[in-house]
Specification:
Elements: E1 5-6, H1 7-28, E2 43-44, H2 53-66, E3 72-74, H3 76-81, E4 85-86, E5 94-107, E6 110-115, H4 116-124, E7 133-148, E8 152-153, H5 170-180, E9 185-187, E10 194-196, E11 201-204, H6 213-226, H7 229-232, H8 240-260, H9 265-270, H10 275-294, H11 296-325, H12 335-373
Parallel strand pairs: 2-3, 9-11
Antiparallel strand pairs: 1-7, 3-7, 4-8, 5-6, 5-7, 10-11
Helix pairs in contact: 1-10, 2-11, 5-6, 5-11, 6-8, 6-11, 8-10, 8-11, 10-11
Amino acid sequence: MRAEKGKDTLAEGRARLVESLARAMEEEGLSWYAGWERCWSARNAATGARYRGINRLSLAAASARCGFDDPRWVTYNQAREAGWHVRRGERAQATVEFWSWYVRIVRAGRQSVVTVQRALELVSTGKITEGGVCGEKFLRGRGAWVFNASQVEGVPPLPVPHASDPRSQPWRVADDLVASSRCPVRETRSDDAFYAPAEDAITMPLRGQFESAEGFCRTLMHEMCHSTAGELGRPLPTDHESYAFEELVAELGSAFSAADAGLDMSAVAKGGSVQTWTQNHAAYLRSWLDEIRDDPSALARAASEASRASDLVIGRYERTRDERLRPRARDERPLAERAGSAREAAVRLATVDMALEDMKDEVRETSDIRDAVSPLGPSGKRP
């Protein structure tokens, strides 16, 4: 059983993830996460909080590698504090990153480093003065080993969702995605899918050009993630390197979004797309591999941006879906009162119909008079 944590754990976790991701991309190409369909929506078993960014990606890879079906994870200390027990012989199979803002303080003549939140508490309670806070705040990360909930005794059973399964109606998901897009989505016969920043619009091939609804959704979500760049302050790509990074953001963002929409991730990964889009992204794939191998932190940055983009895409999608599913307000008035309203409506409708008939009669009479006095006669021609 391992419970190491710290900078070494963080670096080791990133290196392990990059290797897993690179191997999957080399073996499966654009279907790289076909074997990662189990647990894309990981969350903490103790707090219920969802993991984001590179943690989400790392835990999906660990689930695929170890065959875990439970999306919940927990540190050894969290399990112990909750009264749960890691089974004897179990080993932590993944690491997660924790990042916080820190600051240096001077207390009782000694300098130390604490989180910004802790420094504010010390100042507010009078234990240090504002002058005891030294320098600017800085970001520091650490890694911690986590166990899957299936390795821990005492964790409550995973709740069974009661909502309808989106995997049985992926075209409905596609409809709601199109309706929720922040910019127009134009579906036309085309060999490519793309987001045009100058027009702020997405062009998609016709749905019949895709092998499956999941393939359509994956491609659309990819382009919708691109469309969030302006909202989130991501710079527009200007060279090959920045294009590769933006494509990696959209690729990860579409995977996160598809999982949160409840789609079958295996079908999403294998869902065929149009030829030009596939060829272009296969080329970008090689650039992704080079970049993340040379600089593992690039994967962390891309995953972070992908989470932010996915949050916007899925937030709009869920609001659109919920509005469609919201039941219409029922008329709770007594039956007699509703019947009276119905009779009044019928009388008003009959009155309108009678008025329309009267107007038609007047028009016909006017037409007869005009024809009678016209030198051209009823046909409009001279006799």
